[in-house]
Amino acid sequence: MVQEAATSAMTKKMSSQEVLNHYRKKTILITGGAGCIGTNLARALIKAGPERVVILDDLSAAYEWNIPKDSKVTFLKGSILDEEMMKRAFGYKPEYVFHLAAHFANQNSVDHPETDLLVNGLGTLRALEYSRLADVERFVFASSGCSVYGSNAPLPLREDFVSIHLDTPYQMNKLVGELYCNYFFDYYKLPVATARYFNVYGPGEVPGKYRNVIPNFIWAAMHGKALPVMGTGKDTRDFTFVGDIVDGTLRLGVIEGALGGAFNLASETETSVIDLAKMVNDVTHNKTGTTYTSKRDWDKSSRRRASIEKAKRVLGYDPQTQFADGLRTTYEWIRSNSKLISNALDE
Fold first, then answer.
1. What's the rounded Cα separation, in Å, for the pair 34 and 29?
2. In the chain, what are the domains?
3. Of 13, 239, 295, 327, which one is least surrounded by beta carbons within 10 A?
4. The model's pTM
């Protein structure tokens, strides 16, 4: 307890710039690095002056134009299930691995459960195996706080509560990923830390069939369509801006107190879907309003609000972005990239 208190006191004083400084002249691998979190993480790491940032992504749910163009960035198009591509990626001898690659998301896993098991189960196991062989300084796993707690967990959601009664293959396999991380930490002493992300949104996420509600609402509103609200619209989510997620993720990569632990990265604020729809319509000046549809059969979670007490205490995590500000920033990004997004959706 004394050591934990000392570690907490130290980490609370660590600024975001001090965290970034740890990555200076380092080689970092980001699997799934072409997505929203990955591209924002890469942009943050570039500011640290790394030796190299390697992005491995098969572009099944992301686009190459979204990857930052920088001499420090090396992009490899390929799957984490492809042994040759993994050998190429780890051939750069990364000191840090951020494992973001995933078969996203819940509905996608319901539609394609075998693919979900392969990517989120076997893919994570392989990433851990290669990281062990490479003797990396830290392996950070992107789990999902919206998954591992199940639909009946008490609020606020805390890291010490995990359910085995989950609703989709995506949720199950995210928990499997965490269990493999625990195994590699306990058995092989691999320096692992786990981020449990909550409803991440922000610049870099393209709307689409299996994407999150915010980019899809914004895209629909920009085209004058009524926003499809599922159920009563009173369900809540803990929407978290990607900039805050990146800061927390970078902290997981360097803070000693994070080793072997799982941490909620969230905003600690509930927002109802109907309120979100109203905010999106306001910011986009969409007069069409909303329409109501039935909830998906697997969607049993009526409320989401995370506790971030542990992340604050151990990591010094302190989300700064107000939801209204983050929503407007996201809208501006989608609007400024609307031609690229439109072309991507037509493919």
1. 12
2. 2-202+239-268+304-320 (3.40.50.720)
3. 13
4. 0.95
